[in-house]
Amino acid sequence: AAARRGSGVLGHGAPLTRGTAGDDASMYRIGIDIGGTFTDFTVFDRDGATLAVEKCLTTPAAPEQAVMAGLERLLARFPALARGCERLNHATTLVTNAILERKGARTALVTTSGFRDVLETRNEYRYDVYDLFIRFPPPVVPRHLRHGVPERLHHDGSVRIPLDEARLRDVARALAATGIEAVAVCFLHSYRDPVHERRAAEILATELPGVALSVSADVDPEPREYERMSTTVLDAYVKPTVDRYLANLAAALADRGYATGLEIMLSNGGSTTAANARRYPIQMIESGPAAGVEAALWTCRRLGIADALSFDMGGTTAKLCVIRGGTAERSRRFEAGREHRFVAGSGLPVAVPVYDLVEIGAGGGSIARVDRLGLLAVGPDSAGAEPGPACYGRGGADPTVTDADLVLGHIDAACFLGGAMKLDADAARRALERSIGGPLGLDAAAAAHGVHDVVNETMASAARLHIAEKGCDPARLTVIAFGGAGPIHALALARKLGCPRVLLPPHAGVMSSFGLLTAPPAFERMATIKRLLHDIAPSELHAVLDALRRAVLDVLGDAAGVAFQAVAEMWHRGQEFPIEVPFTTADVDTAWNAVMRARFDARYRELYGRIDDQAPVEVSALRLVGSRPDQSVAAVDAAGDDDFPLPADRRVYDAVRRRFATIPVLRRASLPLGRPVSGPVAIQDRETGVVLGPHDVATRDASGAVLVELRAEAS
């Protein structure tokens, strides 16, 4: 382990069942997930012979530095990694950070005359109707860079006012003098017919060579002009930044001899080439959380779990997603750059396909404090990787969740990340005593338990609402816990929610990076329909689906091996938010209208408890997802890695008795296969661990996963 240290990289490999690292004949797949605190790596040998993981502190100012540093450490252990790499998939927070930090390109907007202020008038929704001083994030395009040009389409796509090309050229020349780097084009009703937007893009490309262009008909071809304009503007805003980052990263990989092109994780759970990601960069905005959901779905398929709660808790945030029947729902409602980070409606809408999950400002780095009312509060601000929690010894002074977990004994200072990174328990204790214990009259242990319990209740409150919105019974859900802090908090979260069991996958601490390896190349396109269900003819459906299929294949390339999934967005006429109803091409030719009405009614009843037989049903849009599934990862069997120091026991705080107790510590890999192990006991892996209560029972299966049954409340 000592040989793997250096440059902030925390390396550790995990041999599986067979194979030799560094074998020139091996073909490797690499997943890289940049998080707020750590950058995680997973290397998979395509024949299932070896699996290795790496972890290094994220470098926020230049995220590619952590990526290349981790790859260099992996290359030292796998000499054939570069030339034997057949797939490298990457998830990044670059798009989100560019929007949050307002570090995107100097961007202009060209829109229909009279509509340039849509970005500020928004949709008139107030997220707090009683706040007289309510604040919204300012548009990323200032008003003097927003230009209207004469043109107008009717709602049916017919031309009312032709595009004034002379005026557009004047606008382009005026913009050229401002030094803009990107232009967003968003005309009214262009989702019906993009003829004006296409022509405008041609003119702007000629008049503004080298300037990035984003066209709403490509980025978000659907109604709701504010959401469509916001998404298109943000796509243009981040495009030059993403273009430079991906070009530089691809060049660095090529210089180091990597034999494959870079792939990028998209927010919908699929991956695409770096070139396509540079065309539609806004679709990367939730790439990291999507990778985590993909990992949870893979785990469900592998172990035959139908209903679960994916729980990914890292250093900055916790992400929760309900899985029903082995699938996770997607949504086109997402916000970036919120004024109040976790208050819906306070941010900039981004209408791209994302997994429907809830994100909470609760991670290992979340900062604890006593608020103005004298109450203990945790997050949403985070210490991140720089300076990090107090126990990291990198200059952080504020107490965090990680500091609390360390003081409570849920983390062992000596074997954190397999011993590659030593933690300072005294620094954590001092920070908790100074900021929490002193003001509240508590000792360090009681203060730490308060932080631990508050962050668990914060996550449980958000999860309860999310589960209720999905119409789920928590008693049927298995919590799949991963991320560096996920297993540490999963049992307490499950108890608060009433979930009976928790599953800890192998290498849970870097599970999102493994999810990148399971994510298939995929892309999605949509078409606005907005027609009554009974008025849509099969021939019309086939025409729309054929056009969408061509658009998807334009991104995916060869149709060989591509599987398509069609979804109709449906609602009762007059409603605002649609319900997703999946269907197949075969359904179109077999009484599609009746089949879809029955499916819509069933889903509507499931969500709202009743149906309205009299209200007409409308199809608002059709979406087609094409993916090229790869089944080779399905054969992975993960055993453990025993080459890290581990004490025989550990002192863990008992909140009921308000004292510390010494409990045994077991390696996850050493748990007897299929034989239950009862608590109290600590189960430790390289990247994370879990503490079982006195009545909890853990069982390891052949895949290396540990299932914990919560038999009763710890006492």
Describe the 3D structure.
The chain is α+β, with helices and mostly antiparallel strands and 715 residues long. It has 17 helices and 36 strands. Strands 14, 15, 16, 21, 24, 25, 32, 35 and 36 form a nine-stranded mixed beta sheet that branches. Strands 1-4-3-2-5-12-13 form a seven-stranded mixed beta sheet, with helices on both faces. A four-stranded parallel beta sheet has the order 7-6-10-11, sandwiched between helices. Helix 10 crosses helix 12. It is globular and about 80 Å long. The N terminus is likely disordered.
Low-confidence stretches: 1-23
What's the helical proportion of residues? 25-40%
Instruction: Tell me which oligomeric state these chains represent.
Output: single chain
Structural class: alpha+beta
- Quantity of strands, as a count: 36
Largest sheet: 9 strands, mixed
Tell the overall outline.
globular
Number of helices: 17
Bin the strand percentage.
25-35%
Question: Alpha-carbon distance between the termini?
Answer: 37 Å
The average pLDDT score comes to 87
In short:
The chain is an alpha+beta fold. It is built from 17 helices and 36 strands.
Secondary structure topology:
Layout: E1 9-15, E2 28-34, E3 38-45, E4 50-57, H1 63-77, E5 85-91, H2 94-100, E6 107-112, H3 118-121, E7 146-149, E8 152-153, E9 159-161, H4 165-176, E10 182-186, H5 195-207, E11 212-215, H6 216-219, H7 225-255, E12 262-265, E13 271-273, H8 274-279, H9 287-303, E14 308-313, E15 318-324, E16 327-328, E17 330-331, E18 334-336, E19 348-350, E20 354-355, E21 358-360, E22 366-370, E23 376-382, H10 401-408, H11 425-440, H12 444-469, E24 478-482, H13 486-497, E25 501-504, H14 511-518, E26 522-532, H15 538-556, E27 563-572, E28 579-583, H16 585-588, H17 592-608, E29 617-627, E30 649-654, E31 659-667, E32 677-678, E33 681-684, E34 689-692, E35 697-700, E36 706-709
Parallel strand pairs: 2-5, 5-12, 6-7, 6-10, 10-11, 14-24, 24-25, 31-33
Antiparallel strand pairs: 1-4, 2-3, 3-4, 8-9, 12-13, 14-15, 15-16, 15-21, 17-20, 18-19, 22-23, 25-36, 26-29, 27-28, 27-29, 30-31, 32-35, 33-34, 35-36
